[in-house]
Amino acid sequence: MGSRVAKAVFFGLFAFVAGASQFLEFWPNKPSGWQISGIVASALVFVGALYAAIADENAPQELETSRRAIETATEAEYQAREALAEIETFQAEARRAVNLYLSVYAMRGALERFPSWKEKSDAAVAKALVEAAGEFMHIAAGFEIWHRWTFGIYRARLKGDRTGKRELICVAKRRAIECDISQARIWDEGTGILGVAFTNRQEVIIGDTSDTSVRAVFAMGSQAKPEDGERYKSFAAVPILVGSDDTPWGVVIATNDQDGHFVPNGRTGVQNAEIVRAFAGMVALGVGMCQLSNNEETSL
Known about the structure:
By secondary structure, the chain is an alpha+beta fold. Helices cover 55% and strands 13% of the residues.
């Protein structure tokens, strides 16, 4: 404020002196054209001084104003980036949720057609559900085109060695890189992630299989392969519980080659493992329908 007043006084004083000098020269005679021009110019300088006092700001104030403007713009940009990230996250969550719903809807439709099936076996149920879910399933699971993922339904059966123990065989699957189902490994109960989920009747979700504690608990034994560490970094395995049976019918499992793809807790929105849980429930429903149908046919 002081700087602006000083400018106004400085320019106003000189304008007054210049104008007064013009009057002194022609008094008491009439002023010439050039003298009149000098008086007008002096008046304009005085008006300019007043405008500078009202509207002009000194350099430090201008710098402070600029600094605040930059800070405001930076904060606005940061908030815009955060909002954009939230929108992208919401879109991804919504996409997963929609495809989870579509997967369950498609599987429900397949089971509604169960009475017209020619083959009414539990293996047929598993295959029909995987086929019905199709593309919806791997989108709901968060699988991307560059991921190496697998999705399988394993059924338990008694081993042929008369020990009374069970083993898990793959009856339906879908993979990023397809292979014949006969190449799928058979897992003994209690061995590997599949076997542990089956034995404990509890889901197993692992974000990083490279953790030494994870390897110790879920040891694969002779079933391990050299490439397992790169191909199967994250797991979600859910037992299939049919009715009141104490022993699970089997296990649904999904794998991914990306660390942290499946996580037990801590993730907001639709979890990638939710589709695995949904599959386990739908398979249990379908197997129950199949068992009921077979019992009815046997009793006839």
